[in-house]
Amino acid sequence: KNKDIKVDLEVPSLPTFEDKKKDKKEKRKADRHLVSQPKHETPPPKDPEDDLDDQLKQRLKNFDFNIMEMMGEDSPRKNVQKATWVTGRLALSQQSSRFTLPIDMARLEQMTPLDYVKNFCIIKRRRKKLYQDIFVKHKDKTGQIPFKDLEKALTMVLVNTLTSDDYKRIVELLDISDSTRVDVDGFSAMAALAERLMCSTHVSQEQVDQPDYQKEKIECADFSALEWKLTGVQVNPKIVRILKELN
């Protein structure tokens, strides 16, 4: 006969979901109370130049106070605005502007001499600022300089350099008359041409080889074979004269 086998096993106690959730909550609570220990890092060594800068600043500060005491001043002197107008001879340079030629020389056929210098003269930024400042000083209500004020304005650009004869030569080259009025671009171009022409008469033999008194290489290349470039083109004779003066 088969005997019934009876096994008595106790049911193991398993963790419930609530116990697990409770353990996680207590662990998080414990973590919140943990205080991390600050890390003690060694500061980088101080640059010796920083000490020198601090010392220099302090010396300058003391120097300013000493000067104030010597001059009997209670507060630092304010900067005095300097005059902006040129009072001495302008340092002439052939590199303050660059004259160019059009790729199609036939473009010159319809131009006046003043048109040429306005369209084919590249003026350096600092020099152009000087020309513009003097233009503003002499322009009239129309925003132009009338012929009667041109000589005075150009003379202010080329202080102690441009003579009355030089001015007449420039007026003749540019073919301008008593009725001519020039805008800022025209005046800047005239001033650049005048400075270039003055270089040939006011530069000594010792200065000829210095960079400032030599034309830029790109301009020299542009004006090379000038006679050949003018062949077959009906250009205003006064423009041709200007080109030869520049060459």
From TrEMBL:
Residues 28-47 have a biased composition (Basic and acidic residues). It comes from the Eukaryota. Gene3D superfamilies: EF-hand. Residues 1-53 are annotated as: Disordered. This is EF-hand domain-containing protein. It comes from Magallana gigas.
